[in-house]
Amino acid sequence: MVSGIERKPNVLLSTVSSDSHTWNLVYLKLLLEEHGYRVSCLGACVPDDLLIGTARRQRPDAIVISSVNGHGAMDGARVARALREDPMTAPIPLVIGGKLGLAGSDDELLRRRLRHAGYTAVFGDTDAGKLIGTLAGLIRSEARVARRLEAVA
Amino acid sequence: MISGADDAVDLHDYVMRAAVDGELVVQPRMGMASPRRMSDGLRAVAAAAARTVGTITLDSYTRVGDEDGARRALAQGLELNGYPIVAHGPQVTASVAAAGGAGMPVQVRHGSAVPGDIFAAIAGAGLTATEGGPVSYCLPYSRMPLAVSVDNWRQSCETLAEADAHLETFAGCMMGQLCPPAMLVALSVLEGMFFWQHGIRCISLSYAQQTHAGQDEEAVAALRDLTSQYLPHARTHVVIYTYMGVYPRTPHGALTLLGESARLAVRSGASRLIVKTAAEAHRIPAVAENVTALEHAAMAALGVVPVATVSDTGIYAQAKALVDNVLSLDADLGRALVDAFAHGYLDVPYCLHPDNAGQARSYLDPAGRLGWSELGSLPLHGVVERHHAGRITSSTLMSALSHVQHAFDTEALEQPMRAIGGGS
Question: Which of B283, B263, B282 lies closest to B273, judged by CA?
Answer without folding.
Answer: B263
